[in-house]
Design goal:
Length: 85
């Protein structure tokens, strides 16, 4: 399924993925569009999913729930443990 990832709405019917490849795409977007795309991709990552970007691509501060695990590879941070009363 091909979609324009820069403009919404995000397709919610896609569900979540263990791996999302987005290589050599973000280099063409401005900072605001890059942040919007990364947030959208993050929403479709499984709890332990990985996002792979191109080596020269930056996320312009749009890390959100993602943590770097290797250059150009980001993992979704696990949800914090529930607080006990």
């Amino acid at each position: 399924m091909l979609r324009n990832i820069r403009i919404g709405p995000r397709p919610t019917e896609l569900g979540t993925f263990d791996l999302v490849l987005c290589r050599n795409v973000l280099i063409y977007f401005d900072a605001v569009s890059t942040q919007r795309v990364v947030r959208g991709l993050e929403q479709h990552l499984a709890a332990d999913g990985l996002l792979l970007l191109g080596h020269v691509e930056g996320m312009h501060g749009a890390r959100g729930a993602l943590r770097a695990v290797h250059p150009s590879t980001y993992a979704r941070r696990p949800a914090p443990p529930a607080r006990r009363p």
